[in-house]
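Two entries, shown back to back:
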Amino acid sequence: MTIASLDPGLGPAMLDVWNGQTAAFGSNQTVVDKVPPDMLHLVDPHWYQFPPMNPMWHGLLGFTIGVLGFISIAGNGMVVYIFTTTKSLKTPSNLLVVNLAFSDFLMMCFMSPAMVVNCYYETWVFGPLGCDIYACTGSLFGSVSIWTMTMIAFDRYNVIVKGIAAKPLTINGALLRILGIWLFSLLWTVAPIFGWNRYVPEGNMTACGTDYINKSWFSRSYILVYSVFVYYAPLLLIIYSYFFIVQAVAAHERAMREQAKKMNVASLRSSEAANTSAECKLAKVALMTISLWFMAWTPYLIINYMGIFETAPISPLTTIWGSVFAKANAVYNPIVYGISHPKYRAALYQKFPSLACQPSPEESGSVASGATTACEEKPSA
């Protein structure tokens, strides 16, 4: 008894599809075969050695990016709406949170639909100009998000570490920082268009990014310098800020406990949680922020470094993971910087009661819960 005899309608068709895919992977077909002719001049010869990717990967990538896009657009759109329509949340510090959510919102608006369409056709279908726009927006909004996170860390450092001596952030100061972030990011974004590196299809042929396969050191230098100013510098600044933030809060809590002992009371805080100290809560926020940073951008950086230093072979399948992790950053940013904010959750509950994200009184009184907008928690700043 043959397979076909078990299902005379479906069996032969499935066998034909399987045999066709097997033949393709065993033939001279490559991952570049479906690329439109007007895009071939942008494809590096490196990719011609790889057979076509299994359609399953294109389907999974398209589905994943589609889901991430929907969650990010809804989540970041909600953050922007709540923060801009709630009077108690209209503060200078929260302008940075809104800028972060707005950047992530635009990133997925530009990139998610295009990626889904390309995954459906299993290649890039929007032409060279579309490739430039796609890669430009990814670089621009990614850099804006990274440096906005850095400015948020600076704001926390200024309020928590410097305390009363800190110069409070004003509306004009926040807007000036935001303008500087966008101009600085735009500078790095347009550099490849003017000849310092270039934007090309990545190995899976459904996305575009920097050319990390090019052997020219002039082209490689862009990725090296870019990584210094858009990865290492903000990362080190965030770590520096949170190190001293946690250290300052720990010292403050230690002083509070010592004072409580002298006064022969259990605690000077009426709403302090029994088993969770403020410095532990703040340390968790800091650890989460830095960990998510690594999860989002390190895979993409590693892929770029693998290309320019030729430390390991890069396959089309490898390039998928950089895209997924980097775009996932736009999903959990609103969780870290928005939903973890008790006043945001209270406003969300008022405007959308069905979401039921109202904070408990303990959360509202927690020192660590004000990490995203510490200046609201400390009027002296």
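entry 2 starts here
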Amino acid sequence: MADQPGQTIEYQWAYSIMDSSRVSTFLISMLLIVYGSFRSLNMEQEARDRANGGPSGNCLLNPAQQAQTENNVQTLDTMQALCLPLGASISLLVMFFFFDSMQMLFAICTAIIATVALAFLLLPMCQYIIRPCSDGNKISFGMCGRFTAAELLSFSLSVFIVCIWVLTGHWLLMDAMGMGLCVAFIAFVRLPSLKVSTLLLTGLLIYDVFWVFFSSYIFSTNVMVKVATRPAENPVGLVARKLHIGGVAKEAPKLSLPGKLVFPSIHNTGHFSMLGLGDIVMPGLLLCFVLRYDAYKKSQGLTGSRLTYFHCSLLGYFLGLLTATVSSEVFKAAQPALLYLVPFTLLPLLTMAYLKGDLRRMWSEPFKSLTVSKHLQDV
């Protein structure tokens, strides 16, 4: 019993992992990936059903229909996957050097994008609520387009939440906006093959490691942490100063931009656990890809085992996030989460695909090759 205090200090990192903020980070990040992946799969199936004339349609997609059903999503190619880490680095440097002069632009653009993304996140809930009292017809707004009542409700709720966030700067509303951005990105951006996925995640791993571990040697500070934690000027405060409304200008809080999710600790007052949106979105794109591949294999009757690629990758994501959390507690420093998330999600997936004989097909345009062969068989 005499060594109990020493043991408590030695295993302090283990208690920290079970903190409420850490548990919230684990649960929410995994739920966002699962939800975003299934939203993407559902959108793809609905588009295919519409193009085929209904769920039971058997006609094939012509080029015009194919373009129409895919114009809402962005499929990354090899060049885009290679350029994305470079573009992210340039954006990071712009925010690092010019944040003070451009912070108002950053805050306004973020609020606009987050409003649309949050409306997308809230849309299924609004559809469920409004279904009993709506016939589903679209309402015309002239040049703005036609929208259903559920879409109008979700957009109104989204605008309301973003406005309250601007006025209060509350972390919970910032998290809601960040969740919307994660789900929208996973749902509307797709990886076409395992080759593109590997190039993208490997490039982002190098990007994350460099800016977290080595940027301080060049810029005398951790650029990634500095940009992620720097608050922006409130647009309300700026307008109040222009109009000489002193009271409002003083009360307007600085805004922490929704480029991350933060969760407070219940037991440790003032302690927050933080996870960047990229640490959710980028592995989430890989999991979305394997979920679509699992669904395609199932539709072709090619499933063999109950353990799917999606299950394997989701378990890898959990273990990678756990390892990143342990490392941050042990070393008492910010860790590049993708350093752990990428190997833990990608390597088991590659191994499983090789053992099941799917690696060559998944590596290069699996959906296109399978679709072409299926069409040839039908002809």
